[in-house]
Structure to design on (170 residues):
């Protein structure tokens, strides 16, 4: 039995059109899909998959390949923030260094493999040094305020682990 809804309710579709109209976005049905819409915004293609619960959409686009869930009322703000370039001096993701624990090499967040032959890339532990500012997004997932406040604490570490684990199996 499918967990996703089989169709988009007319009220939900109308509400999405009303929210996106001020941005000049007109979502259209994706061919072959009953609950997915596509739209162009700022030169990029976005897909909106109806997730149910009245007004929740899984939104996929540049930088959001795994699609965070967005409420209909927040859709315009989400798309506007997602297409704005990061402010100078306020990077979305600080350059973090971490250590795999099996070899002497340091890795940066963009490196997924250890440079040595110890074959430890599957057990990389990504630690954040104390005082590191929390980003607004982490690998494309918006960071909740509570996690941002405790970014260098165990709460932040376990949240990052959960996000990476979820994306690894998605």
């Amino acid at each position: 039995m499918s967990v996703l809804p089989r169709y988009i309710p007319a009220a939900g579709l109308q509400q999405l059109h009303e929210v996106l109209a001020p941005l000049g976005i007109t979502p259209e049905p994706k061919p072959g899909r009953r609950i997915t819409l596509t739209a162009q915004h700022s030169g990029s293609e976005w897909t909106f998959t109806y997730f149910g619960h009245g007004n929740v959409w899984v939104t996929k686009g540049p930088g959001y390949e795994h699609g965070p869930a967005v409420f209909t009322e927040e859709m315009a703000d989400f798309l506007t923030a997602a297409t704005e370039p990061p402010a100078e001096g306020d990077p979305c993701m600080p350059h973090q260094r971490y250590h795999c624990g099996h070899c002497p090499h340091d890795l940066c967040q963009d490196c997924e493999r250890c440079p040595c032959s110890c074959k430890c890339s599957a057990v990389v532990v990504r630690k954040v040094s104390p005082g590191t500012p929390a980003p607004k997004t982490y690998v494309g997932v918006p960071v909740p305020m509570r996690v941002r406040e405790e970014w260098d604490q165990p709460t932040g570490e376990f949240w990052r682990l959960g996000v990476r684990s979820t994306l690894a199996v998605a």
